[in-house]
Design goal:
single chain, 472 residues, alpha/beta, DNAb Helicase, Chain A, Rossmann fold
């Protein structure tokens, strides 16, 4: 408390805010330049803040500012004692226009310092007056510091001339053309990668479907494909524990029956494949958090820690949206609270410069439609996901929509055909591709690529064999 009071007293002595207001009254044509940089909140002195707000309102209304109108407004409202002395204070000195930019920088710096001081005070109050465990305290402290530093970063605007924007765009194009730029993180499914171009850094991508469509299995499959290229992956699992996730990777990698693996009934030959899978997986750069009930602040804290541990992150998977703890004060409006969670996760992807894959359920509204393929509107009950996310991918398995659909799919040998629908893609194409889900191995196969050890011909043979087996 004393620290902040001393700092504010020091600001009064420095008087940069009134100096800026004095420059504006002497050079009123500079108001648009200042208005583009400073907001009312950046002034710490209440009187200076009030005067700047009046000047901004004049500028917005009249496209200019007036010393006389400022005086009349102050006198009429009576919020400042002795408005004559205030105007005299602002106009009696002489400041050159060259002092404008340095004064703006000082005001911004003072505002940034105040934000950090307030964050430090709130962290101290948390430590003294709350009963948080150390993990929650650390997460909340990091969130407070992030909020302070993030707002100061927002003060810097990104404004480009046509020449600057063209040069930036051309440099990125040349890098892509000669394979010197990251054009997107490849999923390992060539059909999907050809359509979306991979997941981009800083983007939030949602994988959504109804229950039993294989959302988590699909995400784990992608994670394993990425890890096999020695790219670090972090998984925030709010439902499955770490052992279950790794078990699925082992089953996928070894190509053994998942039920037999879980029951400990694998054969000697399958045990050899499992042993080889363990050798293939054990050095891959994967880190998993499997604690349930985390909020966004805790997720952010863990991902920052993981990035520090691994040196970098190539991809993050969060499983799943509906299991993230919402702020208690927002429970009365769940859709809005979920929307805020999604927005914070998108900002987190940008902050960490990593693609985040967010798994989500969809509403049951599709059950009343004749065509049950999911569409963006099926996400609306979960808070504007379709507007905030950079990409939305749906999984659709027609055989799982009804008993009649399954019976027909069994006759046609298409029970495990999966349609991957790219419903939204900010930097790529939309459309759909077909994958095949191998139930016993809990993995997806791309018919366009010999990715899992089966050629398209062998995959077709396996489908035919299963179809004949069902008929028998």
């Amino acid at each position: 408390m004393a620290t902040e009071e001393n700092y504010l007293k020091k600001l009064e002595r420095n008087n940069q805010e009134f100096q800026l207001l004095g420059i504006l009254l002497q050079y009123p044509e500079k108001i648009d330049e200042v208005a583009d940089t400073l907001e009312t909140k950046h002034f710490l002195d209440p009187q200076a803040q009030l005067i700047y707000e009046i000047l901004l309102n004049q500028f917005q209304r009249d496209n200019q500012i007036s010393r006389t109108k400022l005086f009349l407004k102050l006198k009429k409202d009576g919020v400042i004692k002795n408005p004559e002395e205030t105007i005299e204070r602002l106009t009696s000195g002489f400041n050159t226009v060259d002092e404008l930019l340095p004064t703006i920088e000082l005001i911004k710096k003072n505002y940034q310092k105040q934000l950090l001081i307030k964050a430090a005070r709130r962290i101290e109050e948390l430590a003294l007056n709350t009963d948080l465990d150390i993990g929650d305290y650390q997460a909340r402290a990091q969130e407070l510091i992030f909020e302070a530093t993030n707002e100061t970063a927002d003060l810097e605007k990104h404004i480009y001339t046509m020449e600057e924007a063209l040069m930036k765009s051309f440099e990125a194009y040349v890098d892509r053309k000669y394979n010197q730029a990251d054009v997107g993180l490849r999923t390992g499914f060539i059909s999907l990668d050809n359509l979306i171009g991979g997941f981009k850094k800083g983007h939030l991508n949602v994988i959504a479907a109804s229950t039993s469509m294989g959302k988590t299995a699909f995400a784990i499959n992608i994670a394993k494909n990425v890890l096999k290229r020695n790219i670090p992956v972090a998984i925030i699992s709010l439902e499955m524990d770490a052992q279950e996730i790794v078990d699925r990777m082992i089953i996928q990698e070894a190509g053994v029956n998942g039920w037999k693996y879980n029951q400990g009934e694998t054969s000697e030959e399958e045990d050899k494949r499992i042993s080889k899978a363990l050798d293939n997986l054990h050095e891959l750069p994967l880190v998993i958090s499997d604690e349930r009930g985390l909020n966004v602040a805790q997720i952010r804290a863990r991902l920052r820690k993981f990035k520090a541990q691994l040196g970098e992150l190539g991809m993050v998977i969060i499983d799943y949206l509906q299991m993230i703890q919402l702020p208690e004060e927002q429970f009365s409006n769940t859709a809005r609270a979920v929307g805020q969670v999604v927005l914070q996760l998108r900002n987190l992807a940008s902050e960490l410069e990593v693609p985040i894959i967010l798994i989500s359920q969809i509403s049951r509204s599709f059950t009343s439609r004749q065509d049950k393929r999911p569409v963006l509107s099926d996400l609306r009950d979960s808070g504007n996901i379709e507007e905030i996310a950079d990409g939305v991918i749906f999984l659709y398995r027609h055989a799982h929509t009804s008993a009649a659909a399954r019976e027909k799919a069994e006759e046609e040998g298409t029970v495990n055909d999966t349609e991957v629908i790219i419903a939204k893609q900010r930097t790529g194409q939309t459309g759909s591709v077909k994958l095949y889900f191998e139930d016993e191995y809990v993995r997806f196969v791309d018919p366009a690529l010999n990715w899992t050890g089966f050629s398209p011909l062998l995959t077709a043979i396996k489908i035919t064999q299963r179809k004949n087996l069902r008929k028998s």
